Amino acid sequence: MKVAERYAKVLGEFEREMPVVDTELNFANPYQLLVAVILSAQCTDKRVNEYTPEFFRAFPTPQALAEAEVPEVYEYIKSISYPNNKAKALVGMARKLVQDFDGEVPEDMDSLISLPGVGRKTANVIRAVVFGRAAMAVDTHVFRVSERLGLTTGSKNPLTTEKALMKHIPEALVPKAHHWLILHGRYVCKARKPECDKCFLAPYCRKHERDIAARKRAALKAAAASTSEKE
Question: What is the pLDDT of residue 217?
Answer without folding.
Answer: 80
